Fold this protein.
Amino acid sequence: MANEQGVENKGRKPRQRKVSQSVFLASLVLAIIVSFAAGTRSEEIYQIAAPIFGIKVAKQPLDTEVMKEAYRQLAANYDGDLDANKLSDGAARGMVKAVGDDYTTFLDKEEAAEFNKSLNGEVSGIGAEIGVRNLQPTVLRVLDDSPAKKAGLKTGDIFVAVNGTSVAGETASGVADKVTGEAGTTVKLTMRRGSESLDFSITRAQISDPSVRWSVSDDVGVLTISRFDDNTGSLARKAAKEFIDKGVKSVIVDLRNNGGGYLTAAQEVASLWLDSGKTVVTEKSRGQVTETVKASGNPTLKGKKTIVLVNGSSASASEIVAGALKDYQAAILVGEKTFGKGTVQKVINLSDDRILKVTVARWYTPQDRNITKEGIQPNQTVKMSSDDNNAGRDPQMARAKELAS
């Protein structure tokens, strides 16, 4: 399953606008009808009318003639068959990539399906989350009882090849596409761990990975959140209720290797500690506040001593929760500096099951800090070395339990 580090605003209620969409559409239709008499193109009418209703439009129209000309020349001269769908996807991908933003991306039909499955924790594969670290496809997390775990894959392992084909420079989604497949089939991986090259042959299985897991021991509740999906809020509330019912005195929230997810889920989790109405995060576009997301509901865990574990793979929605709890002094952060992704992406469903993820804003913590490329510094820095990882030691969790006791 791929992990692309994103705060997505899927599922949020549309913002109230002064003019309803139906009024806008009616006005636009009327304008287009009038345009026929005036000899004006509908695109020109849209360029004029849209800003009146608060809809951003391109400063200059896209010249598609070069693309059309290139396609005509390919069709006329290429010595082989052309796949129009692949060419269309390639053109869209190239245009989006030209924006120059790592988090504004185009997903074709297959990638979009994988994206949706990974956010819902359902995929046939080996049970490892994949992300890009230092320009290299890397294992971010290995699921318990998964084929990857049983085979010996570890967090931090770097993908060199899949089924004998190099994956150098591939995106997380690209590697995930090669690693995933039907349950019962086998995938061969070449990995690098430090200076060592390792080969694995792993049989894929149906993977179910809920975004939230929890346990209670010695009056301490441990809440592990691996991503922020549609179910994260309800699962976290269920865990919080169990913590209260069992009389826990302290809570450890493990956000390590959590690359993000939906903003609404981050809001719901932060609301377990923060009073309703308190700011969780503020979004700004071009320096102007576009939305302030506030806590809501009952802060079930308010007042409980809370330790939040973070590391360099805690990103985006994880950083929103960690940043809010730190700013309000509702938790002590332990571990290593977070990833540093302070932007919000909107997920737009395109035709034929394609998806466009586009950066729409930067987000700021309650103390008005944007953490892009800076990350969040924990209150207490505790390193976790590759030797610790290989030996199964967890000094960060050990320190959190010391603080919680």
Residues 259 and 391 are 24 Å apart (CA to CA).
